[in-house]
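writing this on my phone so excuse typos. first protein, seq and then structure
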Amino acid sequence: MQAISNTTQTKQSTAPKTYRPDFVFVVQLHSGKFVIGQANNPSKRIAAINSGLNPSVKGTLQINNIVGIKEQTEQRSLISVVNMFVNKYGVDNVITV
């Protein structure tokens, strides 16, 4: 009898895997405050916030305006966007989710 060799080949990815969500989004509430977050599916995340499922945003139908949805890059990250909005509008007017 011949011995059976069980070898497994694994593919090595050329690019390192990043676990950072793909997009940063900014929405404005009826109160004037800005909500900033990150997600792979920002439309679903924004809908969840607007439905009242996020404890940081009390109540349903609070979103007045979608300010922007941008892809995260080395220059644009959640931290940099939050810092920009805090510097421009003040810490009391920015909610990070």
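second protein below, same order as before
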Amino acid sequence: MAYESVEVDTGLTVDQIATVFRRVIRSGNPDATFGPIEIGAGQPDVYAAYAAGKNLITRWCIQLFVREDDGSRRVQVIILGSSMLGKAWQGTRNTYSAALGRSRAEKVVETIRSIEGELG
């Protein structure tokens, strides 16, 4: 599984970031599923969640990680995608589209930046 990430620093609270994440994803895909990501013991304090969905033939999945960083939050959105070899080997049923995930991740980060600009 290949992945890439989009990151942004923000003064928004973790709750505000989680709300933006859910609203942006739901606006583009009302049937998207959400869930928590368990962080292992001994790891830093991190809020982690995922969103996943599909269109007629393609699935997508992104992960959200929020870390506290001296009064601000570091937001990282991971875009999961399958390589061309993976798609050839497993078909579209068991793979993720990086392009669909990227568009959703970029929209989440753009919205966070927009809200940050409005507040600042």
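The CA atoms of residues 39 and 83 lie 26 Å apart. thats all i got for now
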